[in-house]
Records
---
Amino acid sequence: MKNIYSNIYKNSPKNLNKAKKFLKKNKIIGVPTETVYGLAGNAYSDKAIKKIYKLKKRPKKNPLIIHYDNLKKLKKDANIDNRFLKLYKKFSPGPLTFILKKKKNSKICPLANAKLKTIAVRFPSHRTIKNLLKKLHFPLAIPSANISGKISPVSSHDVFDEFGKNINFILDGGMSKIGLESTVINLCGITKIMRPGAISKKEIAKVLRKNIPFSKKFSKINSPGLLRKHYSPGIPIKLNCKKSDNRAAFIVFGKKYKKNKYTFNLSPKGNLSEAGKNLYKVLRKIKNLDFKRIDIVKIPNRGIGIVINDRLKKAAH
Ligand code: TXA
Ligand code: MG
């Protein structure tokens, strides 16, 4: 039988070198990270960045996150300050993205940051992408590997579900451990959280020793969270449901729900981190079945629950 997933490659030294070759030729590949899977391209190449926007059908005004494996490389592209260093020390590599001032002589392709004066940067902790970045002389622009506005992928098969053979190479790194996109924090001017993620407002406030607000503005510089419609499975979603019927997929959380073909439990144990890891997987599964609606129970608004509720609100918009 022919393997339909023939563009998915397992994580091995040989395949890392293959990935490097693709990237050096300014081609786009699928890559794992600890948050979600991404589409990676050379951040210094116009050609690569244009391909990313085209593949994702992403509006040009929505900038990409640039990924690095070390501070020395970042310093060529962005100005850093004390605030950044404190947070970097505590949380990087990991699921935190910083918005910094772009250096005038940076080689980052202006399209990659929507011609803004700022760039978003992240140091991913997933071993595969870290090792790949180490091999390269340029940073990678890596947006989530989904068509703009759709559900983010958390496995190599999800990337295939979004793009099929439109990309030639998807590097497999197992299920994403976190399953929700990184926290985005603005460090240009007043410190603000633009998108909630696994690194919480509380943890950040503790390091900076002050309260950090969530950004409420729907500015032209749409930050992840700030696009109104996002993470969409393409059918209506109703939040805070107590019960459901047989036409809807019922997403639940905790042990009191019976198993049946309409019910999808994010975490039978009632563990919010597990629920976060499963959220996009479950939404994608339901999307590929024949449901007309999704009903979802109330998810506790604490810890990762805050991130889950942020994404659900946008998916339901
Ligand atoms: O966890 C993640 O961050 C994943 C993995 C693959 O690293 N990436 C990701 O990228 O979520 P993306 O493109 O799906 O979301 C990044 C968001 C964009 O929606 C954009 O609005 C915001 O970051 N962003 C990027 N550069 C920005 C900038 N200079 N100012 C404000 N927001 C920015
Ligand atoms: Mg995205």
---
Amino acid sequence: MITVEEAQQSVLDRIERLPAEPTDILDTLGRVLAEDVVSDIDIAPFDNSAMDGYAVRAADLADAAAGHPVVLDVVDHIAAGVFPTVEVGAGQASRIMTGAPIPAGADAVVKVEDTRPGTADGGTGGTVEIGVTVPAGANLRRRGEDCRAGDVVLSAGEVITPAAVGLMAAMGRSRVAVYRRPRVAVVSTGDELVEIDELPGPGKIRNSNSYSLAAQVIAAGGEAHRLGIAKDDEAETRAILSRAPEFDIMVSTGGVSMGDFDVVKDVLTQIGELDFWKVAMRPGAPQTFGTIGGTPFFGLPGNPTSCTVGFELFVRPAIRKMAGQGALFRPRASAVLEHDVKKKSGRRYFLRGRLTPQGDGYSVGLTGSQSSALLTSMHRANCLVSLPAGETLIPGGTVVDCIRLDIEEGVQ
Ligand code: AMP
Ligand code: MG
């Protein structure tokens, strides 16, 4: 049996980044930029006020003090969006709003809270009393302070965040090139499966894996296409698996174990190529991988948690590689085990755990029964505790390695 790392490598060797496509910026969130984005203008495009207040000449206020305010004539009232034409001369001020351009002659803004209307409420034609001094440049936002025309503001390879969307909008880019989302087909197999809006009859269960897998595809940055249920029958399984070349990846669940009706592996060897079908891990050793008509195919086990963990370890990195992401694997954390854990030798275990901040680090405890049929303990988990193949008893207090499921990548 191959190790998890060997299996992951063998998958990634088969995966290539998809082409980039011009995309509306609101659909780029979380995707990877395929071009440098250069600003067409200075941002801010002009010197402007950071405050609602009065644009002044700082020198005029040199002698101002709380008890001895300087009185300035108000010569203009400048709203945001209008370019002022009246110059501020000595002994003068212009009422100005946040974001409005600084008028010629002025070199600072005094915020309105530090002023008192003189005559005519400090409006144009009236006066304003100012009892504070300000340095030249106070409360000004300079042209080009955020970026300059010609600057590379966003670089190819970065993951688009909401702030990046805002910057692209500020640079007038409604569309940019990002790597395509992988189109991932999700296939369920099993005579026992019914659709989720049905009440399962005798011996039947709901096709829940189809939905958990589709959700994992979306969370990984792919586009999920649920193709429905194939009965445990070669012809039917072949018909649905033959659709793999319509997609970038196909994932199936069920039918890969040693059961009498497990036909997925046989069908894969008939219509495609099998790379591996068993990985030394728990839960879910019968992880199957190959290609059908060149499309990577993952035959995941049917037990809900084996399926979820298999996706996490093998399919998610593949989707991310296709999508142009640099970080293919989840961040990891070391944590102190809160209790003893027993396991069998010979296989790597991935146990459902919950990390809790503890001092400078974390502690981790299991979230309940680790039966691969149970999804509730998976739902409570925020990590997979990765335990090495050899050991059988890991005592409480041991520092263990955890795969964090609560964050995608980056600084921890
Ligand atoms: P299999 O891998 O086909 O032997 O299935 C293993 C277990 O997973 C069985 O108990 C199945 O009923 C269950 N199972 C298989 N497919 C699904 C599915 N799509 N949703 C939920 N459970 C499933
Ligand atoms: Mg089955």
